[in-house]
UniProtKB/TrEMBL annotation:
Gene3D superfamilies: Cytochrome P460 (3.50.70.20). The keyword Signal applies. It comes from Siccirubricoccus deserti. This is Cytochrome P460 family protein. Residues 36-170 form the Cytochrome P460 domain.
Amino acid sequence: MQPIRSVLAAAVVLALAGVAIAQTGYTPGPHNITLPSDWQQRFIRYATVDNASRKIIRHIYVNPEAFAAARPGQPLPDGTLIIMADTRARLGADGAPLLDQQGRFIPEPGWIAMGVQEKRAGWGVGYGPEKRNGEWEYARFNGDGTRSTASVEACFTCHLQTRAREDFAFNFWDYVQTRK
Ligand code: HEC
């Protein structure tokens, strides 16, 4: 091929690649995650964690599509959206959480905060290796579902350092490995 032709061909390839990147519209950050308006009706609560040190209960939900598609030993499905919604625990006169007949904390009504992680093909591009959690993004929401402006840096750090081999998830990964 004549040199001028190959230069032109390369320019066309680069231009097309530029268009492809522009079309995905992805820029890293918590803004990629939106809280689905119907999550409380539609999502599956697969775990509830009593957190004694913070005197809260973490109600953990996943979208039904990912719940059905997840397989042991496999990365979690594209489109997995996990919502960890916290409530306060009801406290006794001594300030300690009251327990129900199963020994579990008793939730006070109303969410106090939500931590969310979502995984989509093409996400994570633009984070360095010290931060990137595969294709996951993290976001925080207030109890009323509005976006919180608090930092998500620690989310990336802790999940990367502790759970890189479990697709950056904690109890949803464990749940999938052991469910019948
Ligand atoms: C210091 C470590 C640490 C930090 C920081 C952290 N997490 Fe986690 N995360 C955990 C642990 C441990 C669990 C398992 C549930 C539990 O024990 O509370 C978890 C569970 C979750 C879950 C439920 C999914 C699953 O598979 O367990 C979501 C969603 C989540 N974290 C999102 C976040 C978000 C969003 C942030 C930042 C605002 C964050 N996490 C910060 C340690 C951390």
